Amino acid sequence: MGIVAGLDSSSESTRIVVCDTDTGAVIRQGYAPHPLEGRPADVDPQAWLLSLGEAATGGLLEGVQAIGVSAQQNAVVPLDAQGGTVRPAMVGGDKRAQVAAVDLIDALGGRQAWAEAVGVVPQAAQPVTKLRWLARTEPEAAQRTALVLQAHDWLVWQLLGRPVRRTADRGGASGTGYWSAANGGYRPDLVELALGHQTALPEIIGPAEAAGTTPEGLLISAGTGETMAAAFGLGIGVGDAVVSLGASGSVMAVHHEALADPHGMITSLADATGMHLPVVHTLNAVRALRGTAELLGTDLDGLSELATKSTPGSHGLVMLPYLEGERTPQLPHTAGTLSGLRRESMKPEHLARAAFEGMLCSLADALDVLRGRGVEVRRVFLLGPAADLPAVQAAAPMLFGAQVVVPQAADYAALGAARQAAWALGVSQGTLDARQPPVWQGASAQVFEPGEELAVGQAVRQQYVAVRDQTHPGAFQG
């Protein structure tokens, strides 16, 4: 038996789990917020190190043999030739680069050109877009940039004592906009297109490789982005999809190959195991529930309780929850729609049910985008606080047409980082195969089956699709 640690440096805090290498059982945990005021777009990366040090106090890492690092995605750290920060890190939620994203899309010849080149169509958050913004807005800083790292790459480099070798993993690299999951290589020409000149990029190492060893003999694994780490911590595999219910939504699944999508609805990411992780985003998920709850003078729990008093189909009410426009399908300038108003349907419980069905049908549309490309979906993991609402748990299996698993709340990104550390440690010791990660005990979860409600769910989906196609004809035909 050995002991490993996984640390997750999110946008707000650092969480550390110390785990048994054989079972994944959590032995100790640590937490510390980042010393930041609000949520600035620019962050001194030293804040991440300070938070890490605070989270690891009290002997938390005593006896640990290896550490894995997960961190917020799309946080770009531009470094000069001496390894110093050129400017504060530009973090994932930064929206200043929206114009730069449009510029980049046009510069390469459109969305399809980007999808075919790297599997990612530039959005404001992506590192390649941030580099374009830097070149346009802070040209002196752009010119001084000699190396570009993401948050987890930078943290791994710091933990190793800033060696000459700088590394990254394929999972994190796949979201940059200048590394292709399909061919496993960088596109330096896209970095130059964005930044205005070539720059050094970290070496991509394999999922089970070690980035290095500290002078004290502590092995540091490759590290990865939070999305990939959370998928690894959950233990999902082929046939599994993860639906994340935030204000916006996302659907991702494990697949054996990269998927280039000419319409840009699929972001072709790599996972933390050597497989692929295609992702489809929606702009509206829980925000549609919150908006409806406010309209009805209640909260999410109250909305769920109301919805359970209605019946599948919401007495003919259909909500297209495109409140902020929509990304899947691509309707950036549209608004939400409420259809099927009749005197008998104008009751709070039917509107509440329509909000839940609209949100879940929109996410089912995203699932169908993946299924339409040959991605197998037998089981859906449902994440986010709204996953615990009875109205979600009752409707999701029949609308998704699959078994729904609601895992117990846990630090899955940190657990995934720890599992990666255990893998790299086992490979270095000759006890594990580089092609097969350690098998850890699965997450505690509630499981819901579609059962006899499957046909009812299909009818509700058909009702939703009919309204969607009538309101936005051809939206899913490009």
From TrEMBL:
Where on the tree of life does the source sit, at the highest rank? Bacteria
InterPro entries per the record?
ATPase_NBD, Carb_kinase_FGGY, Carb_kinase_FGGY_CS, FGGY_C, FGGY_Carb_Kinase, FGGY_N
Q: Which UniProt keywords apply?
A: Carbohydrate metabolism, Kinase, Transferase, Xylose metabolism
* Residue span, Carbohydrate kinase FGGY N-terminal domain: 4-225
Any one GO BP annotation for this protein? D-xylose metabolic process
Q: Which Pfam families match?
A: FGGY_C (PF02782), FGGY_N (PF00370)
The GO molecular function terms of this record are: kinase activity; phosphotransferase activity, alcohol group as acceptor
What SUPFAM superfamilies does the database record attribute to this sequence? Answer: Actin-like ATPase domain (SSF53067)
* Domain Carbohydrate kinase FGGY C-terminal: residue ranges: 241-425
The entry's family comment says:
Belongs to the FGGY kinase family.
Q: What is this protein called?
A: Sugar kinase
In which organism is this protein found? Streptomyces boluensis
